[in-house]
Amino acid sequence: MAGRVFFDENKCKGCELCTTVCPVKIVVMDKERINVKGYHPATVKEMEKCTACSSCAKICPDVVIKVERL
Fold first, then answer.
1. Gap between the Cα atoms of 55 and 9, Å rounded
2. pLDDT tens readout for residues 5-61
3. Cα angle vertex 8, ends 3, 11, to 5°?
4. Full residue range of the structural domain in which residue 62 is found
């Protein structure tokens, strides 16, 4: 099943927990941007590979990730 991941980037504190649980390793930290809190926010590098497993959203302590199943 395909999915799409959305981040509330300005609430992300850069803890990187979401990057550790993605089974297809597409969740990464965006090293080219800094959010309003001063952190590199999480992002998805290859959205078409998302399986909508929601592991990233479940582990996020600040609830900044939403996953949509397509």
1. 17
2. 999 999 999 999 999 999 999 999 999 999 999 999 999 999 999 999 999 999 999
3. 145
4. 3-69
CATH number assigned to the domain comprising residue 63: 3.30.70.20
> Strand pairing partners for 18?
none
Give the separation between CA 35 and CA 24, rounded to whole angstroms: 25
Q: Which among 29, 20, 27 is positioned nearest to 3, based on CA atoms?
A: 27
Predicted TM-score (pTM) of this structure: 0.90
Give the 3-state secondary structure of residue 14.
coil
Q: How many Å apart are CA 37 and CA 26, to the nearest integer?
A: 23
Domain count, the chain: 1
